[in-house]
Amino acid sequence: MKPSGIGGQAVIEGVMMKNKDHYAIAVRKPDNEIVVQKDSFNSISEKHKIWKLPILRGILAFAESMGIGIKTLNFSASFFEEEEAKKESKVDKAFSKVFKGKTESILMAVTMVIAIVLAMGIFVVLPAFAAGLLGKSIASDSLVAFIEGIIRIALFVLYVFAISQLKDIKRVFMYHGAEHKTINCIENGYDLTVENVRGQSRQHKRCGTSFLFLVMFVSIIFFMFIRTDITWLRYASRILLIPVIAGVSYEFIRFAGRNDTVAVRVLSKPGMWLQGMTTREPDDDMIEVAIRSVEAVFDWRVFLGKEAEGTGITIDADNNGKAVAAEKKENRQNSNKKSAGNNQSSKARTTKAGNSQSKNTKSEKTANNSSSKASNNKNRKPAAGSQSNAYNKSAREMAATSARRETLKTMNLFEEDDEILKAVDDFVAITDEAAGKE
Description:
The chain is mainly alpha-helical. The protein folds into three domains: 15-303, no CATH class; 315-360; 403-438. It is built from 15 helices and four strands. A four-stranded antiparallel sheet has the order 1-2-3-4. Helix 6 (167-187) packs across helix 12. It is globular and about 65 Å long. It holds the Pfam family DUF1385. Residues 326-403 are annotated as: Disordered.
């Protein structure tokens, strides 16, 4: 499987796909029309490079994903509010008078605050409180922290199971399955068609469900070592450390998306199993929506090598590129014939010129042969030596730079063209030079 780097999420009757700084939302309207909206997103990490450091980039990615997710959900929901807008209640009219044109934004903000408070209460405070009650009869603090984590995971699984029974959520989970299947189709090397997508898996290692499950698992490890007997401080530490735990979990998800080792597959299994609840088999209409979203931000033909980027030349995969191969062979033969003719004519011209020059210069060569050899030997040795030393020094510097950068890249801590990587490399180079002078 070849990682594509694209990700997405299911929205109301649609799919959002994101590729680097661009994302697209495809929604099927009530009249069966598919609407696609493209937009760009500039991450804070582009202005402030510190946010590209490990852990910090995970915290930022989590926050930015939340922002994009809310925005895309609002966009998809707007197509289904038109029917309800005609039946405006007295409460809606009162809100419109008080907040005027900002009613929708304010209601969404209030809804998000309530949702976050409830999530903190159910998945953070409640498990800590229940484990605290059990802790009175358990001597080991580490065991209490472990039980707290198990309670948290159990509550999360029950919550996912409960909402998966709702009719509207079932359709969202079906679009979630369409999103995963579409990405898997590309990364497995298949053309992006409804037929090919239909046969793909609904699970994916970079899924947000796996990320949330991993957050809860990592929190168990954190809180087994971070302990306090002060009740309010115990609750506060659970809440304040959520961004850090999310950052650590992001690093694993990022690593898992780029590697397919046995250890990664084993550690990803629990999250993949949980995706069996958060994804459902989509119908062909849903797959079509997901494909439209992908094609708006990602050229899968170039990714699969079906088309040369920027040329528009398409390779026929069914014929194994036989026509293209034949054309290339013919071009090579024509090129060889031309080059052979050019070589023969150039040789003839060179022979004629060489014969006339050789007669004139024969006597001069004999007279100056001994003196030129002596002078050349004297002058050539120091020049060759200095050039060789300069070349060797340059080669050593390039090799050292390459070795330093390759070490940092293999650690998978920095992006390839990251300015932080270059800064670290420059610092190491200066340090090595100073040590050499000493």
